[in-house]
Amino acid sequence: MRDLLGYILFCAALTAGGWVLAGHMARVYAGRRTALSRALAPLERGIYRLAGIRADNTQGWQSYALAVLGFNMLGFVLLYAVLRLQGLLPLNPEGIGGMAPDLAFNTAVSFVTNTNWQAYSGEAQLSYLAQMAGLTVQNFVSAATGMAVGVAVIRGFTGPKGLGLGNFWADMTRSVLYVLLPLSVVLALVLMAQGVPQTLLGAAHVTTLEGADQVIARGPVAAQVAIKQLGTNGGGFFGVNSAHPFENPTILSNMAQSFAILLIPVSFCFLFGRMAGDRRQGWAIYAAMGVMFIAGLAVIWNAELAGSAGFASGGNLEGKEQRFGVALSALWSMATTAASNGSVNAMHDSFMPLSGLVQMVNMQIGEVIFGGVGAGLYGMLLYVVLAVFLAGLMVGRTPEYLGRKIEAREVTLAMLAFLSMPLGILVGGAVSATLPAALASVQEPGPHGLSEILYAYSSAVGNNGSAFAGFGAGTPWQTTALGVLMILGRYAIILPMLAIAGSLSGKQQAPVTAGTFPTHGPLFVTLLILTVAVLGALTFFPVLALGPIAEETARIAGQTF
User: Fold this and answer.
1) How far from chain centre, in Å, is Cα 153?
2) CA 504, CA 508: separation in Å to the nearest integer?
3) pLDDT digits (tens, 9 = 90+) for 116-129
4) Among residues 292, 308, 298, which one has the least CA distance to residue 351?
């Protein structure tokens, strides 16, 4: 009962926080004054002047997409250079050398695409400069890229005909200045108060009770942890991420980070309703996401609480921090895989098979159960297009959404975006399951070994970043292949969704009639959930049956791997 009450309070606080933040974001992206304008508006205008940006110069979808791609490509080049040359750069008290080429490629792609897949251990392989000027900067701007694209897609779906999608440079700048930066400062201060380090001093050398010398890594941790959670990035300062007591020392720090992971994705649902001029539309999308989130959390919590034969009473605590236990580990694992975050406070490789199944499905459906900042909303709008199309087929009418007709072009683009997920996961995973160089990364035999591969490729293509802990991610094959698939997973959805938004923005909104299918009530919410579930089940069920489902069946029969 205590766990359930905690979950209810968490969801209530998250809903309220998302609702309030959405109001602030609506003013920010409309260019209106906010409570932060007096302090930040001069800085915003200075950035525009320095970069030669006209914030009121709206862009079509092609121009917006080129700006996204160009900015992200430049970010990749700069981050790759920092990682390769960190041994020659300052703020490196431990004298850490440059990354290998394949690992630097993987890491740079990972942070630019908001994946934050870690085939390295941060405290051992990255200098403070690489952590701050490299990874933390990308945590801000890759998150801001997703938020900007999310707002642009909303404008295309909801704005007046011919308005365009806005200005990428202005949207990204405002995302950083007015949303990510202030929230990160607040969260970093909370984490520092809970004991998370924030220092430029090198590692601490202490003498243990036995007289041995112990090296304790530390650094500018709190600042990176704050933005990694708020931006749904997930990359940890330390190799074990938020299971490390320096990243996540207390129950309060754990709850603050869990809240931060979902706050901006939740607010995007309500932002959509505000920008559409019909807040019921935002509530409908939030309801669909919320129902799926609660269902997944219930499965994970029950599976971990029940444990298995051989576990002591109290559930499956293998791979979990005692200070968090089953309930908070289950909540975090659901939040992080649903929200494209990738941070962990427990080792997912040690979760029960049904829990691993839910975690993988969260990623395989495109992480649209709240999802990444901005990315979850435009990913869910992909399913909205397909759901409305299916509804139109059933009633024999041309499908419409928010007064705009959904025609062959939009459906084709939506299917292209949708198919990028199974293409990357199933084809990439199949290759990795057959090549000896790739199989060397698999730790366990049988269906759990297949689950390790499936989870890794779902995480990379879904831009999540978490992994089953036993999977060897640092081999040249995996760093290269997963890096390429992160690019596919990010931009093969961004580009079609911007194209759909651009197409819809050029259409006149039709008035609502008696024959218009309502997209704000329980019927549409149910249809949207079924669209997500059926498409995901039909696409991935066969391979899931060979992995976590087979493992669960074998577990019930008394066989372990």
Assistant:
1) 18
2) 8
3) 999 888 888 999 99
4) 308
